[in-house]
Amino acid sequence: MKTLKQIFICVFCLLAFAACKNETKDASTNSEVTEAETTANKKTGQAFITDDESTPTVLSIAIGSPDHTTLVAAVQAASLENALVNAGPLMVFAPTNDAFAALPEGTVENLLKPENKDALANILKYHVTPGNYSKDFLKKFKKLGQANNQYVKIDVVDGEPMIGGAKILGSVKAGNGIVHVIDKVLLPPTE
Amino acid sequence: MKKRLTSTIAIAMIFAAFTSCNNSGKTNGQSGALSSNVAEKVYVAPGEYDEFYAFISGGYSGNLTVYGLPSGRMFKEIPVFSQFPTSGYGYSEETKPMLNTSHGFIPWGDSHHPDISQTAGEIDGRFIFINENNTPRIAKIDLKTFETTEIIEVPNSAGNHSSSFVTENTEYVVAGTRFSVPIPQRDMPIKEYKGNFQGALSFISVAPETGNMDIKFQVLMPGFNYDLSHPGRGKSHGWFFFTTYNTEEASTLLEVNASQNDKDFIAAVNWKKIEEYVNNGGGTMMPADYAHNVYDEHTHTATSTMKKEVRVVNPSEVPGAVYFLPTPKSPHGCDVDPSGEYIVGNGKLSANLTVHSFTKMLAAIEGEKFDGEAYGIPILKFEDVLAGSVEQPGLGPLHTEFDGKGNAYTTFFISSEVVKWKLGTWEVIDRKPTYYSVGHLTIPGGNSGKPQGKYMFAMNKITKDRYLPTGPEMEHSAQLYDISGDKMELLLDFPTHGEPHYAAAMRADLIKERSQKIYDLEDNKHPYAAKSDDDTKVVRKGNEVHIYMTTIRSHFSPDNIEGIKLGDKVYFHVTNLEQDFDVPHGFAVLGQNTSELLIMPGQTKTSVWEPTKVGVWPFYCTDFCSALHQEMQGYIRVSAANANTPLIWSMGEDIE
What we know:
With 191 residues, chain A is of the alpha+beta class.
């Protein structure tokens, strides 16, 4: 009987302490949940900072170009926006819409399908070098290490650097690197 | 018996359980049941912004720190009066002139009282001014770039303490001397202080567009200590008020000798009247020697000019311009309420707070209610200017701020508390402890016609057990209070850097929208700028070698340099070609005996290196700028003094 009473008292005390603790815990969990909910709805990252003073990033240059709507659609499909506004430096070889159109029929449509997201990302990353070099300076290179971990060859033909066989049509300096517009889509070598 | 004991223990235990539960709530939040929402009040979620900027003086650090409220997070330390290793301020060739004075280069100052520029009595967030106490100077910081852009030395001053407060349209930033000195300075016995030393109150004009500072005039006052000051506003705009102590004019053991008089003074200066006198050619140009240092945003370079004269005015030349208001016991803070009617003298050795009335002051002047004079300056009768006093509010009042809702908040150093009291009725409404020995307090917009309320923070002198110990010296603690209700509520404790003598705070929106992201490279007019890799070169002029270098993610150009010789003075002029927000590059070379550099996008900065050893020495970028930051490096070859190594430089010559 005595023991029972003691147990009862102990349990009661324990409850009193536990209740005290639980109260604060509940409060903090609740606020965490609401916090997570509010942030999840926003598109966040460096790509979504408003900045009209800095030189546009390689991403904003591509978005602003009417000749690169296919490339931009592909970047968005592969969710690579934030990577392209990173401190880099990034040298982007940007195939024109015509270059994409020159691919065998159905290639682009196929790559844009959600199930091919990885393959698409791999191709896009093959167009990006960590670096920032002018067209002229590129003639000094024999190859470039691309962001998908493969190399692209550089040959100098008629005094012009050819990047994996593609010709540089023009170049735009970016805040975080440089965009070289090219006339061909670079396809990563298969192993 | 045993049974009874057990149940008594049990009851005691239950009681203890509940009380301890209660207690823990109390110690966490100081306010009982609702304590849990205190955390919410200061919680700024990741990615969200603080509502207010707070600019807190760094005291003996010589700098100014920038905080967010209510989070208490520190965002930046702005170098002002001290060399600053983080950015190379005061070390780089471009910024060394900022620390030039008539006493030569001063590497470390003592910053005190920041004040934000105003338009029509409201904080406008364009500039912030701060005074250097030791070698008297006033600095201006541009709140577009958060850079110190101008420093003017104040001649005839010593212990520049009743500074740097602005008038309601930033017509003037005012700097009063704490220590009186011989004017002009001369070799004389210290004992002859009384009647011979003087105190200069300097009115520094601020150009409306550019903010350029110039000493318009100095009022040469009797040899008292001028402790703090504030401008009149609204109805009292055109006047400036200064507290004084040591009206005894003691030169030794001031802790005793300067506490003899029952009352010292608040000096009321009609600056509009003196300005008019000066504009009509009044006053005397006296020889002086003071530096005026200006930083040019286009050349990214500061220049220091020595000025040779200053206009001084003796109060007796302008009758009716200066009066003394008797104020008990060595007043410290001199604070004017938002309406401009009340002038609060915080007599640090007085048990009461003395509040003067501007209206009564004008009437007393009109009615010539004088109680004698001091050095020709009329002393107004205490009873005729007194609006009221707050009786026994605490011990050691120092400084008062206002919430714009008819309340005043005063710090009490000795009793370690902030007391809220009502203007007009002088009744104490609330008091809250501070931890410990509070100096100043700040309410956003506190020194203006329109305080922005919501928060008040108290800056303490003593920290002791508030944080984890860090040896004998602790950063000073500050406490943030919610002042939106009748009672103040302690929300947060946060460490401040150096010694915060004072702070200015304001709503973030005005500053945030204007904050600059980069410097335009096209606009860079630095004489040694290299705006593209084509501009890079190395030029020898005798034993001076100038390297025109560029940085961009992720290389220096040139990055291989040969032909430097022992005995050469090598100038690295580094231009950051980036035009991207928040991408500075750093520069450091092994054995660099000046300092590293941190160069903002579009800027050129210069570091001098005098190599002492033959060899091939690496240099590199010290700011993790990019994915290839670790590759951002170069080499410079140093040959013997008599070597014939040709001067050559390159970048990317041999790519595999």
